[in-house]
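Running this now, will post back.
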Amino acid sequence: MKGIALSAGVGLSWLALALPAAAQGQAQAAPPQVYTGAFGAGFALTGGNTDTKTFHLTFELTRDPKTKNVFKANALYLRANAQGQTNADRLLLGVRDEYSFSKRAFVYGAFPYMRDPFKSITYLLNPQGGIGYKLIAADRTALSITGGAGVVWEKNPDVNVQTSGTVNLGQDFSYKLSEMASINQAFRALWKTSDFADALYHTSISLVASITKKAQLKVEFIDDYKNVTPSPATKKNDTAFITSFLYKF
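Update: finished.
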């Protein structure tokens, strides 16, 4: 009986030593990802009575070292041709850095870029900075608002570059439907201090669903509204409905 008890005691001792080592090995084998993101594309082609070609490229990158600082970058290029003529040629770029000084409050700096010849925007640059607050910060739901100020440089065809200060407002929302799908929504507003009627509003809403571990399907609606256009012939509102296949990294 003593031999059995001794053997059992030795076995439990080895088990007690082995479990922390195994747990430590698992922790070392799966360190948290600092960089995450995705890039994707979509393409549509029709023929016969109508001859159209549409394609777009999209890119997203997030650097989150699980500290107080988060960096994000994104890009979208959309081009469409109908009957041999281009009728859409839009490029959106953006970088953003957020630094949290509490669990919910943060400061941010952002640099969005827009080019849309069909909206008579040769380019629009709006570096800005401000503060934000996370109204909801749960595992499945996130909602935040931001407010700030900046400078805008807008170039229109046959017109000199226009420079103005800006007042900026933003809102972001995300909800995880499950481990495989989520809904995301964002709103951005820019008002020129030289003329508050000259405003630009950007809204997007998307549904993202995982197909495999690395592949996703993204369906997105984008709306850009500019209250003051260079000419009456330029429409104020532009929308796009986009379906993308994404590869995560």
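Residues 1-19 have pLDDT under 50 and may be disordered. More later if anyone needs it.
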